[in-house]
Structure formats: structure tokens, C-alpha cells
Sequence to fold (661 residues):
Amino acid sequence: MSVKRYEHGSRVPGWYEPADPAKDPALVPDLAETEMPAGLREEIERHMALYPDSRSAALPALEAAQRVHGWCSPEAIEQVAAVMGVTPAYLAAVATFYDMLETEPVGRHSVYVCTNISCSLRGADALYEAVREAAGEDPDFNVRSFECLGACDIAPMASVNGVFVGPLDVGDVPQLLEDVRAGRPVLAAKQLSRRKVADPNANSREFPVHGIETASSSDVSGGGPA
Amino acid sequence: MTEALLFKDIDEPGLSTLEVYSRRGGYESLRKALASTPEEVLAQLEASGLRGRGGAGFAMGKKVSFLPKGSIDKYLVCNADESEPGTFKDRELMQKSPHMLIEGIVIASYAAGASRSFIYIRGEYVHQADVLDGALAEAREAGYVGEDILGSGHSLSLVVHRGAGAYICGEETGLLDSLEGKRGNPRLKPPFPANQGLYQGPTLINNVETLATVPTIIRIGGEGYAELGTQTSKGTKLVSVSGHVQRPGNYEIELGIPSREIIYGLAGGPPEGREVKCWFPGGSSSPVLKAEDLDLPYDFDSMAKAGSMLGSGAIIVVDDSTPILNVALKVAKFYRHESCGKCTPCREGTNWTVKMLERIDAGTATPMDIEIMASVQEHIIGNCLCVLGDAMAMPIGSLIAKFREEFETHIEQARARNGLGAGAPEPALAAGGVG
Fold:
């Protein structure tokens, strides 16, 4: 993936513009004056109440705002900042750190194709190219190559709006996009949640049990009600 | 192995619900633990010899004992940010047996005296986090989590916290910063989390699999658990096998069985007609081993003795159809992407390693670049706040050391394609490098 460049080859937009030392830093936005989408404030406050320090809610709050706005827009960050009582700069610093928080407008359907080592050994790079090509310029899709998604047992795989599907091959791509467009469960037969564990020793009732229950020396003193 | 412990009835329909889990003996261990003192529970954990399953392999009982005593606020954090490439065992546990993890957390918090706990789960695990949330609601309803659990006087709050996509948040101090709502930058150690962790309070951090093993230890007893495995690697371990094998997936093994039995016996080995070229024994951060190492016992010490590590128990198999440069490039690019940028050796080292590997691929490298690349790896190791840089330097260093000839051939052939000649500015130097 090529890195986006700005003035003089920098990766940071606007670095070349001189800073105005007389300008005041952005303050914590006033909650009363900030326009809030319905329910967002309540959801963020619910998260804040879960932690001893309400700042811990930064990630769930940004995620909630992203769900409403589609990305962590300046407006979204302003709203979260107003509810949490922190500066927008603080939240912008957090949002730029994490892969799943979008700092630019993206399509509303995310397709993360894992291209890390286990998936790429099984053809993930070709799969990613095929998905990109098939999605083309469709503004509804946010197709990204992603680092290991933790589903190497179904490699190569993709996370489609958070649903893990695999093993995929290039031939599955049209159906995948079609399912998303139609609002159907994506590739229902290939969803990870339906997969059984690979271990032949699991789930077996007749598997011999010995040396376990007889370990009398290891009984926790006091014992249980059973 | 005698009996599946963590994977017992893992595919039982509805195991993720409290009803089925209880019917299969769930939360009996919690009752048993709460009927004894925290010290007795801790003694069982120490007797079990259980070593952390997240990667470092530190003795879990000892970690609990490091927490200061007394009635200060203590925290327990479950590290469910499973992001090490090749690892997917915690996902299986959380998705299919979430109550086992919750039960383990409550027991461990009782032993450690922690009153607040968090499960930090990676944001990509949407389904698994939903399952955990559902199971947690049931456990709360049944009185297994909350105030005065089962009348024991022990109280525990538990929150499922979702991350947002950052490998570094699996590093324990990076995780704590992220959980505090900051960028996930690792902290300087010491102070260690046991003394100053979450919100500056004493904090116990354990991997999902480690905590999920706790109910089993209470059920069969610490000494009963210690009968499984080897002298220094006790118990069973979930192993995620992926890459070029016929049956990729999670397997529960008794520590110390031959690696060949896992890769060939359980996972079916590479596809017909192919051979194992190299394998990562513990995720992409572990130095690679070759086919001749397949008969090593799979346990913490044997892997360390072979110059690698057991890590998270993620075996990635690469067969002989794969150019080694592709493997190195994939690994290096991952760590470049995930470096948080705080420490220079890691930030620059991962970046330049990728550039040098790309130069080799493009056919503009000289054999000297291999030397430079190897020395870059040496300068990363041990020089950063956390081990993310090391996690690239170790596998890349081992790939260079074990497949040097292939790198050299690649350089030569790519240069020849570009019409750049043999590529050795001083043939003597290149020859010396080979020796």
C-alpha cells in the first residue's frame, strides 16, 4: 500500500503551514451548544459510567460516534469531546492510533481481507486484489487489506462488516459483494461461527478419563458443596 | 492426552449459555474456590505450575503472588487482544465457552483480591465480544459476578472492553494505556503492572487461555494438573496450526508431545508432495525452525533450547513451494505497520528492514545488504521499551541465518534480471559472507 504524501513528501498534512502562536488551542466543547445525534450522548455516558476513570470510554465512545457518522469526522470528535469533557485534540490523537477508527470518509460496508502470513500462504493477496477489483469504485465499500484477524483456520478469510467468512477463493467474491449489497447474511455457508473445532479429541464422550478425578492430594481444603 | 480439559465438549450446542455450561459442571469450581480461603486457592494455582499462555510463559501463580496484600483497589485484566499472527485459540474459547473464562476470572480475582476486572478484547472480534457480553449478563443475573458473590463476601465487577485494532495493545502496558483511553503506547518497566498498572493500581494481567484454565485447576487440583505435561511445562495447551497444513485449526495437546505429531498427526502436514521448509513454533514473532527440528518435544524449554520459543502456541507451517523472501517480507511489513513509533530502534528498524527486503526483491540489492540487515536486527533486540521490535528482529534474524543461501541466490538472480551483473562489488567479501 502506498503511503499518502503531502507537501514536500511529508506524511503529515498541513505541516508546512506556519503555526499561529497567537491562536488559542481548541477547548473542551460546550455540551449545551453542541448538536448531538439522537442517542449518542446516552450511549457514551453509559460507557463512561462503567469505568473508575471516564476517559477509559474513549474507544467505545469513538466507535459509537463512528457508527453514527460513518467515520471519525471533526464533527463526530467534537461531539464525543463534549460528552466526555476532553479536548478534540486528545480524541484525535487516540483515533489516529487505531486501525478500526477511520479518520477519512469511507464506504459504509467494511471488507477487511486478511493478508498476513497464514492467509497469504493460502492465496490472500490474490483474493484481496479480486475483492478490490470487484468492488471497483463503489462508494459503499471500504475494502482494506488487514493484519492478522485471528482466523487462520479458515484462511484465506475476510471480515465483512465484522462477520468472519472463509476459506474464500476468488470465485466467492461476486457472491460476497452481492450478499452485502442485498443485505443478506454474507456467504452463510462459510461463516466462522458455524465451524466446528478441528480437534478430533474434543467433543468425544468415549474418550478415556483417568488420573484426573483420583488426584486426591490436590483437593482444595474446605471442599465444594458438590 | 488423557482428556480434553479446555476443549471438553467445546462444540456442544449451547455451551455458551449458562444453562448448558452449568449442566456440564460449570461454576462448581467457583463454589469450591469460594469455600476455601484466597491463600488456599493461590496455593493451588502455584502448585499447578501453570505458565502464562499469552506468549511470555511466566508462572501464573507467581504473578498473582506479586500483587501487594491489603485492601487497596486491585484490578484484574484479561488480555483478549489476541493479535499475534497465526494465533486464534482464544477466539475459539471465548466464542464457544465464554463462561469458562468468566469463571476463571472470578476465581483468579478471589485469589488476587481484585475487585474490578476487565476483558480487553480486540475490536475485530465482534461476534466473540457479543457472546461474552451475553454470557456476562447471565453470570451477573445468577450472582456469579457482582456484589457478594454466592454469599462469600467477595465482590467483582467485570466489563468487556473492545479495542479498535492495534497489535501493540496485546503488550500488557500498551493494553493498560489503551484501556485508560489513550493511545496504546507501552510504558517503561519497572514499575511492573503488579505494583502500578491500571489507574496506577496493582494489576494482574493474564491471557484468556491462562484464566480459562483456572476452573480446571480448581476442579482437578493443582497437583493433579501438574501431573500433565513435562517437568517445566505443565498441563495442556491449545495450539493453533495454520499455513501449509491440510487440517488447520485449534488442537488441545499435552505439552511435551513431539512437534511432528502436531503438524503431521493432528494437522495433516503439508499438502501431498510438498515438504515442510520451515515453521514458526509460537506465532510470527518466534524464530523459525526447520524440518530437522520437527522431532523436538513441543514445550517451553525445548523450544527455547532450540533457539526459538513456544510463544502463544501458534504454529505456522511454510512448505517448500514458498520463496523465503516472501515470508520475511510479510513478517517485516506486519511489524512495521504495528510499531507504535515510540522507540527509535523499532520504528526505524522495522521500516528499514522492509526497505532492504524490497530492494532484494526488486533486484537492486547487493550481498552486502544481507550483512546490514542482519546487523539492524541485532541492534533492535533489547533496546526498546517493549518487545515488538524484537518480535520482528528474532524471526528475520533467524530467516537470514538459516536461509542465507536462498537470500543470496535471490539477490543474484534478481540483479541478473535487471542486467546489473553478479552484484558483488568485492567478490572476496561476498564469499566471506557465505562462510
About this structure: The longest strand of chain A covers residues 109-114.
